[in-house]
Amino acid sequence: MSTAARPDLAELERQTLEEALASRGHQRFHARQIFRWIYRHGVTAPDAMTDLSRELRATLAEAFTISTPAIVERERSVDGTEKFLLRLADGQRIESVFIPDTPGMTFCISTQVGCAMACAFCLTGKMGLVRNLTAGEIVGQVRVLADALEMRGTRFNIVLMGMGEPLHNYDETMKALRILNDEHGFAVSPRRITLSTVGLLPALERLAHEALMPNLAISLHAPTDAQRGELVPLNKKYGIADIIEACRRFPLKRRSRITFEYVLLAGVNDSPDDARRLAKLLAGVKSKVNLIPLNAAPGIPFERPSDEAIDRFAQILADHHLTVSVRKSRGRDIRAACGQLIVEGQKRSPAQQLATLAFGN
Ligand code: SAH
């Protein structure tokens, strides 16, 4: 059988694996064992799956394959953050980040190679969209990081805040969450997963109906459409009022809230008036605000506000009874901080640029 026809175990939800096993004359329940090997023990070689029969191991070796991203580079920041450059089966490269003690252990995972959203202050946005990641590649980052950091069996959080816009790759992202959540696999609770989005409205409304509901973070960045439109091109299609309205309707569990991320840019969106407008906008929304002082980079035409301006902005929000935190920048020395993930030499082609102009969806 050619490799192309072989199902990739990394891409299969457990139920699909059960069906694939059944169609080859094996019992469905073996899917649980296989999931435990792959996700709990980090074992991918069928030969090493010692509680499976010789026949089943032979079937796995002959009729299936499993792809795993390869670590090309691993860099460690002075603050303990680690950035991984990973190579996928087709040679494309992505970055994933491990952030310790936030207070938990956090994996920051990519959902696309590049990104189509082109936010004005984000380096990944400069790459354009190269392609979507598959569910197996999204989960594969967790598999690789868990191994490299010897964290199999440890609890960790996952934030979909690496390269890409998760809601622009909706189906594969949701499939990845289901695989991560599988009780025989990593069994990551959706409460430990945060999906960060620029606010693709139709996808956001679809997300509101999912059985598996991650925490939601909205990249807001400005209190008015005029300002936000300059920073987040997608705002011209889906404006602030509609996004906030969708957030108000979003089914939140008791005590949970939506995080609003706000990149602070000196002289652009960091004035006291901006803070007051933001407070007004979020009044009555079950929210918390996460201020992210800009991580400056060459080619990014903005500056980080002064510490005083950051404090003043945060204080005004707090005075308006909003819960506010200022994101501590991690891994800046290795360019692993928010908006700094980029893989050189992977720019999209002009044809891809045109294809992504309509924002897919
Ligand atoms: N596309 C999703 C996921 C990316 S998350 C989203 O936009 O939400 C990355 C977070 O870092 C987003 O809130 C993004 O706006 C923010 N970010 C991007 N570039 C940044 C920069 N240069 N400095 C600080 N934060 C940045």
CATH topology of the largest domain: TIM Barrel
Strand order of the largest sheet: 1-2-3-4-7-8-9-10-11-12
- Can you summarize the main beta sheet? 10 strands, mixed
What's the β-strand tally? 12
Shape: elongated
What is the domain total for the residues? 2
Average per-residue pLDDT, rounded, comes to 93
The assigned CATH architecture of the largest domain is: Alpha-Beta Barrel
Bound molecules: S-adenosyl-L-homocysteine
> What portion of the residues fall into strands of 2 or more residues?
15-25%
The CATH class label of the largest domain is: Alpha Beta
Question: What radius of gyration results from the CA coordinates?
Answer: 21 Å
**Secondary-structure element string:** HHHEEEEEHEHEHEHEHHEHEHEH
Output the structural class: alpha/beta
What is the CA-CA span between the terminal residues? 35 Å
Q: Which residue ranges are poorly predicted, with pLDDT under 50 across at least 5 consecutive positions?
A: 349-361
Helical content stands at 25-40%
